[in-house]
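Sanity check

After download, print the first record. It should look like this:
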Amino acid sequence: MKPSPYARKKIALNSDMNVVPYIDVMLVLLVIFMVTTPMMTTGVDVDLPKEQTNTLSQNQLPVIVSLTGSGEIFISYEDNVDVPISEPELIDTLSNLQAQGSADGLQPLQVMINADQNNQYGAIMGLMANLQQAGIQKVGLLTGAPLPTPKL
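Expected structure tokens:
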């Protein structure tokens, strides 16, 4: 006998969970984390000494040379942020930046040293000697905000 074209066919029920919405949510979260993660890690972690200092007012941003407690050197200038660098490369880079600035008629290059407070005095003086070899005339030391003194 021929089945009726109007009869309903029995289809087995699908009891599996639909995971497509979960995959979409996970992909959106992945994109969000990929975009925000680079923004969360900026700067070299150094423990700055705490002192009260005057702020600098200038048109040109200074070059920041960071010296970690383990003796690693990083440089930040223009679009380069916390680039690991060796001492000879540091001297060459700063000499090139100094020459570029004087060719453009800008103020002398200012360099700020961002050193860990637990560094040896000799390591910081060695870094300053390298800056002097590169022809840098203005060098500053970065500090953190002073801690409030407890009242007795």
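If your output differs, re-run the checksum step. Summary of this record's structure: The first strand starts at residue 63 and ends at 67.
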